């Protein structure tokens, strides 16, 4: 097993992609810094997701990954459950959603740090994917949606700038 994929390294990669220091560009929290409730709710069109919806979606999957690492079942697989109602209608609700995202990230990172190295290659309950595969997928998922947030933020800022 290589040191690059040990639990401590995976936890570090989760932290870098979330807080900062990721090689791919701004981390998730760097992208969310300065986003207010109005910007979080902005949509590029009727079928597009808002930043707030993406934040809720990320929170859902981080909590799911943590639950699986701790030996619990994965998400129930109900269609759309991961895109639940995450449209904060007040600034306080948006701040609470951001805090819930941070809490989900911290819980996941802590669960990863506590893993024994051998546990990474264990299959998840009800799946043939390993814990390592789950974590690598989570890193990819977070980076993908961070890119979406970066684009949405630019579009929302441009739309704000074009208002009289």
Automatic annotation (TrEMBL):
* Superkingdom to which the source organism belongs: Bacteria
Q: Where is this region: Disordered?
A: 68-89
Q: What is this protein called?
A: DinB-like domain-containing protein
Q: Which organism is it from?
A: Geothrix limicola
Q: Give every DinB-like domain span.
A: 27-149
